[in-house]
């Protein structure tokens, strides 16, 4: 039945029966069916929708009358801006400067303007509601279909004009009532047309034999039934397809949900395992940095979060406390560094090096040195084959001394490099504080004729040599010199060395041989103090040539060698002026 061509069947019946009456009956039935589709299924609901839109338009018209139009909206906004930007008194007119303007309800001019602007805002909201209600009006398509069926351009044009007025927010109650009245009249015309067609169809049926009219009617009824069945089949098939899609979507949702849970669970277990693995090292590192065994941290990973819960298993005489409010900034940073180092050392695919920038800027001096010792002895490759190359950037003066001291030791694996300059715009000068590197730099600069670069380094080299001799031979210095950096001048260092040599010579316990003593006391130190040092202090050394300055470098090296002795073909420092 679904494959029957009803149009062909009717045409065949017309041809078999013949006559204009049958044709007219068929046409009238078609028009009657078309009109039935144009009638409202729920005219009451449509009328209520139109009434709500009409009430909104009426409310908007009333507000427009009270606010006096868009020009006043601009005026009120301008006045509001003047009040707020110029700190004008709220009861003073911004146009004529009249003061003490009080309106009904003891309201100032500013309050009246604000209330007016609220009315304009309400108009704006009403326009939005009107557009929204019109866009969801259920009878819009039916109105257009009626106009097309009746071939009534006025009906379509009126609807189009209503669309334009509502979109432009300019429709008023009068124009809207005109539209609604015409729509009601059009519905009446459709109803009247359908009643008229019903009478004409009945009259035509009376003129035809009952078999013919009944056959046409039955064919039309079956045709409508088949049309509905086809629609039902299509909807049913669409429903089946949608159900299949829903099932597939649900399967994907279940799969992704289970996968997410598995990943989350695995990640939680992994994180908990990592926390357990690094907790011991974290405690060890933290204890070595802060040098306090009364504070023992505990690591716990939150189950449904990426956060790491920091707790203190022991805090002096109390257990299981939150770490954040109890630890100072220095201790919190020490704990964070401990966790980072423990995680880094646990990693199987760790990087070959790690760079720290001002890693201990909030630490006190003791904790700074403790951290440096930890990095040097346990984390770096100096004593740990599985460790990392450590690069530390800092502008801390204490760390500078520490690195200079460490790098000067014969067996030290630290290297200290000082960067000077004005980065990123200017040049950066690399100064290696190691003795031989500094010496090589000076000689290279002198060989190239760069006296202005070499001379500051020469003074630094002389200072380094003097302090290194004092440190390695444990030469006593004045109390002020030991405590105050500004007293550690080259002349003070040389005087301290010379005084100690004289003292040990008078006690007949000086380990220096006669040539060394003579060179230091009568040649090198007096020459440095009386000649070269005076040039440094007056800056007249800049006028000397490179050859002379190279001679001065040789004299500094000779001074250095006076405190060394031959051992198995190499030069070694004395332990002190009284002991090898």
UniProtKB/TrEMBL annotation:
This is Uncharacterized protein.
